[in-house]
Amino acid sequence: MSYIASIGLAELPYKMNQHDIKVLSKEIFSNKKSPFKHVMSVFDNAKINERQLSAPSSWYKENHSFNERNDLYHSLAIEYSLHAIDHCLKNKQLLNGEIPYEAIDMIIYISSTGISTPSIDTYIMNERPFKSSVIRMPLWGLGCAGGAMGLSRAFEWIQLHKDKTALIICCELCSLTFQKDDQSISNIVGTALFGDGVAAALVVGEDSPYKKYCKKEKMKIRHTSSWTEKGTTNIMGWELINSGFKVIFNKRIPKLVQTLWKKHVGKFLNEQKLLVEDIATFIAHPGGRKVLEEMEMAFSLDPYKLTHSYDVLYDHGNMSSVTVLYVLARRMLEGNKYQNKNEIICALGPGFSSELLLVEWGR
After folding, report:
1. Are 236 and 349 in contact (CB under 8 A)?
2. What is the rounded distance in angstroms from the CA atom of residue 153 to the CA atom of residue 115?
3. How far is CA 109 from CA 188, 198, 201, 323, 334, in A?
4. 323-334 and 307-316 are packed helices; what angle lies between their axes, rounded to 10 degrees?
5. Are 95 and 5 within 8 A, CB to CB?
6. Other Cβ atoms closer than 10 A to 296
7. Residues 239-283 pLDDT 10s
8. How do beta strands 50-53 and 14-17 pair?
9. How does pLDDT run across 54-74, given as a tens digit for each residue?
């Protein structure tokens, strides 16, 4: 058995409310050929209040080369990943004591918004006293599904190594990919939805000596499931251009909830001999307001089952892979609220893919 012991969040340097981002976007996309005025309502309808950013507003008005963007990504990814890790291993709200860096047996580093070789986890290892024998698993290109997939891969590894620990780090500096000269609807919609974030999660095995550092009641991962729908690679992703990453964001995404996600959840519940009524809450990656609303409609869910997803979307926007860990953090701080009932962590991402984890609280 594997337990999610702690979550750590990093505080990024800049924040902007949705109204100010809309005004800034209107200034940037002022070209007469821009479709901005026809889709500007997406800013108002997104149910987003504020977002964290990696750079001041003036940075987004300027042209930047891919090299400049990636250099900034590289330095900030290291800095704020360390903040998230430190918070995760020392989180007094979720842990009884500080977890030493030497206790970590595996590091899973997830990001899709910058490139680094060696991967960022190697730079992190040089800044903290992690042991040299730590197993590294850098994962790139998973997008919004990355946080849930990272938890699943940690669970699977710890199932084979029940005395081990795994640290999952998600770092997405989405705003550094912003293309001011891209007048496409995809770029405008992405500008209305995405923000920056960094978070870390600690998973411990049932025989780990560090399980004693966890609170008596903790979140237990029971099962996981992955699904990739063939023929959907054009739904979400990046197109690499001279100035960096150009976003691909298909309007079909919310409707895939009614097909891919509903089918995957139904199959998963059937395998676990559960009904949707047995799921107390969905710890869902909030891809956007429409995605969450489609999730509600897919199984006639009461809105309270997605409360934290809506709240994180409102407070932070879509931070790609990081977002589900923010939702999970809020849920974990509530403790065993639903008296050991089943819950599902879920996320959708490029591929087009779906990741599910069945969790419950246990001693």
Report:
1. yes
2. 21
3. 29, 11, 11, 15, 27
4. 130
5. yes
6. 15
7. 888 888 988 888 788 888 889 999 999 999 999 999 999 999 999
8. antiparallel
9. 999 999 999 999 999 999 999
- Residue type for position 246: K
Distance set, CA 202 to CA 100, 133, 205, 213, 233 (Å) = 12, 18, 10, 11, 31
What is the pLDDT, as a whole number, of residue 295? 95
> Sorting pLDDT into bands at 50, 70 and 90, what band is 362?
confident
| Burial readout 62-79 (b: 16 or more C-beta within 10 A, e: otherwise) | eebeeeebbebbbebbbe
Contact between 3 and 220 (Cβ < 8 Å): yes
Tokens of 258: 């009614």
Residue 142, phi-psi category: left (phi > 0), alpha (psi -120 to 50), beta (remainder):
alpha
Alpha-helical segments (H) within the chain: 18-28, 36-39, 41-45, 66-89, 120-127, 146-160, 185-193, 253-256, 262-271, 289-299, 307-316, 323-334
Domains in the chain (CATH in brackets) are 2-213 (3.40.47.10), 218-362 (3.40.47.10)
Dihedrals φ, ψ of 97, to 5°?
A: -160, 165
| Residue in 119, 118, 110, 226 with CA at minimum distance from that of residue 166 | 110
| DSSP for 185-205, written as a single string | HHHHHHHHHB-EEEEEEEEEE
106-111/353-362 β-pairing = unpaired
Model pLDDT, residue 250: 80
144 is catalytic: yes
pLDDT value of position 32? 55
Annotated catalytic residue, options 144, 171, 214, 346: 144
Tens-place pLDDT, residues 183-199: 888 888 899 999 999 99
pLDDT in tens, 94-132: 999 999 999 999 999 999 999 999 999 999 999 999 999
Binning pLDDT at 50, 70 and 90, where does residue 34 land? Answer: low
Q: Is 46 left (phi over 0), alpha (psi -120 to 50) or beta?
A: alpha
